[in-house]
């Protein structure tokens, strides 16, 4: 009889675990669909405040998950608030690494050198602490390029940008690297090479925001290259 009760309890526990897992997975799929497929940040935030989401995700997860939604909404003050809130939570280093990546990009876009540098230095500290860096290396390198070129106006990555532009598998990626290379030429006061490289970037980036931006840079004011 005791064995029978034990088996029943095991079956109930196992069933509860699988039910929890299925509901959790379904909630993740629902939230992901709202934000990244439907581009519906308001719907995502409403669902994130539902009873089901509160059951599955602790407050620190809520804070991290809200960041992309408020970035998509363009709500600068709320996004700043969320990045500040993250500092009060103890979160996994791997999770914090990706949060800081978003924070670096956010403050570079606002041209806030102090906050971007703080986030970048914290991201670098986390990266240096990882025993297995392979999963984070590409993200760290891309953030380094963005930070050094867009914020610090460094031209030292010129050759890397040109090599990456030539070896990239897609036109968009190649165009972005050519655009970064053009910025490096600009910082080195190489006006002719900057313009030639901008034309290469423009060809690769047809149909994107960058096509018009490059047109404006070439036809109106070269200083516009500093805006993006």
List keywords for this structure.
228 residues; mainly alpha; 3 domains; 12 helices; transmembrane
Proportion of residues in extended strands: under 5%
* Average pLDDT taken over every residue: 88
Please state the CA-atom Rg, rounded to the nearest Å: 23 Å
Number of domains: 3
Amino- and carboxy-terminal Cα gap: 72 Å
Number of helices: 12
Task: Label the structural class.
Answer: mainly alpha
Outline the biggest β-sheet: none
Order of helices and strands: HHHHHHHHHHHH
Overall, the morphology is elongated
Task: State the helical fraction.
Answer: over 70%
Show unreliable segments: none
Transmembrane segments: 6-24
Protein name: Tetratricopeptide repeat-containing protein
Keywords: Membrane, Transmembrane, Transmembrane helix
Organism: Anaerorhabdus furcosa
Topology:
Elements: H1 2-37, H2 41-48, H3 51-56, H4 59-73, H5 76-86, H6 93-109, H7 113-129, H8 137-151, H9 158-167, H10 171-187, H11 191-204, H12 209-219
Helix pairs in contact: 1-2, 2-4, 4-5, 6-7, 6-8, 7-8, 9-10, 10-11, 11-12
Structural overview:
By secondary structure, the protein is mainly alpha-helical. The chain has three domains: 21-88, no CATH class; 92-146, no CATH class; 153-228. The chain contains twelve helices and no strands. It has helices at 2-37, 41-48, 51-56, 59-73, 76-86, 93-109, 113-129, 137-151, 158-167, 171-187, 191-204, 209-219. Helix 7 (113-129) runs antiparallel to helix 8 (137-151) and helix 9 (158-167) runs antiparallel to helix 10. The termini are far apart. The model has no long low-confidence stretch (mean pLDDT 88).
